[in-house]
Amino acid sequence: LMPRPLVALLALLVLPLAVVASGEPLHIDNFQRTLDADELWVVEIMSPMCGTCQTFAPAWQAFATKHGGEVKLGQVNIDTDDGMELAQDLELLDEGVPSVWAFDKASGEGRVLWKDETGDVPTAEALAEMVFGAFPGAARLANGFLGKTAEADAGEL
């Protein structure tokens, strides 16, 4: 039997690691491929040390397990220098953490789908409704993923 302080210390070390489990780690050096991709990307902005992020982690993981073959998934960990630099460059921190963004346009422009405003986090099912409800007309690509929407030309009405 382990002493309680040791169990508590292990829990503090392991719990944040469990938060970073679903989605490709994205940062300043590899994010361009997200913008260049034809697939819709759904990206969580998070910190393993954030309590609400830890509460949201099971819903994000369940969403990833069920829908990871329909949308590309990524995570930006703002506790890393490269992750923080990306979040700052894209002004993602304006919406706080955790937040979920879609990079759904051919231009690579992102939009927030969910952000923590109350400490209440959505279920995996509610998150799926938010994500797929935002893209009702999205077409599937040959690889099975939802595709990004084309941009209208500036001259089109």
Strand order of the largest sheet: 1-3-2-4-5
SSE order, as H and E? HEHEHEHEEH
Using the CA coordinates, give the radius of gyration. 17 Å
User: Percent helix among the residues?
Assistant: 25-40%
Q: What is the residue-averaged pLDDT?
A: 85
Shape: globular
Uncertain runs with pLDDT below 50, 5 residues or more? 9-21, 152-157
Q: What is the number of beta strands?
A: 5
Judged by helices, strands and strand pairing, the structural class is alpha/beta
Task: Provide a compact summary of the structure.
This protein has helices at residues 4-19, 32-36, 51-67, 81-89, 124-133; strands at residues 24-25, 41-46, 72-77, 99-103, 110-115. The chain has 157 residues and is of the alpha/beta class. Strand 4 (99-103) and strand 5 form a beta hairpin.
